[in-house]
Amino acid sequence: MAHALQDRYSDMVLAKLRKELVLKDGIIFNNDYEGTPKAGAVKIPTRDTEVAAGNYDTGTGGTLGTGTTTYTTMTIDKDKFVNEIIDGYEAAAVPDGIVAERLDSAAYSLQAAMDTDGATELIAHGTTYGLGLTDKTNVYDNIVDVRKAHSSANVPNDGRRWLLVTPDCYALMLKDTDNFIRQGDISQELVANGAIGKYAGYTLYEWNDTTANLLCIAGHPKYATRANEWSVPVALKDLTNTYIGASAVQGRMVYAHKVLRATAIQVVYAPTALVVTAAAASSASGKTVLTVTGNGALALKYRVAPAVASVYGGSTASGYTSLTSGTTEITAADGVNIEVVSVAATTELVVGVGNAASVPHA
What we know:
Largest sheet: 7 strands, mixed
Number of domains: 3
Distance between the termini: 89 Å
Oligomer: single chain
Structural class: alpha+beta
Helix content: 10-25%
Mean pLDDT: 91
Number of helices: 5
Strand order of the largest sheet: 4-12-9-5-8-7-6
Number of strands: 20
Shape: globular
């Protein structure tokens, strides 16, 4: 009976977990692996090329090909537990309502941890894609460019490409009434799996990530794997030692995530929008002084009339000049665009962008 209850409780938590996950199995991650996660590692079959199709010769036959499938080892590096006391009840006497509430809570906690760890893997081992300033007027064009990068990397365009969008990105898409396909206009199967719409050929899922400047993550389930298993099935256990008349919900789950091809997971960043105000310099005719906010403590640089706008992560090693907000005097013809960027402290790569037109000569 105890083992039957363990199986039942574990299945209930697992079913709830799968339902609540944002980064779902079969949607964001595949489960194609060999082995048992609780053993500590699994093998992932990896194949980026298809079986060759050649021209058959009736006299000599066809050239025998060799398999190109390799196996990637994924170490199971996460071990999560639930262990919550139920005071006043021995295991056999816990009311069903309390059992259900604790199992539901356990599933929610595991879901939050698994989603966060999955996103961490995607961000850490995907390919960084830097955009320029992004708003509702150009978000579609920018996502189309991401789609182009996916197609150039031969990511299958089989209807399973996904886009995890931050709330900020989702808000921009909702304002693009020409291109955003709303939830009510996509299949109910997608909706049941958490989809919130479609955009530029991607199925959208909202993901609330606090990574600085992250706009969205684009991918395909073929190229990211998740493995998970109960190492200790969920059960109600009587407590001993100093606990009297108490029990606990206990269980352990092990899991891991792995990106299999970096170019198939595009981690898309957009720069912070800087607020730039221009004024005529008081000390010299024909010069402009810029006041910049939104950069925090980050250093500033500028360019006059750049041919191409700066993008997140772009180098400022050449072509940029250091700027002190409210002080630096810039020589520029009337009405010329001056681009200002904030730069990361150690790498001096672009993390923020703003623009202002030079003011008329004083």
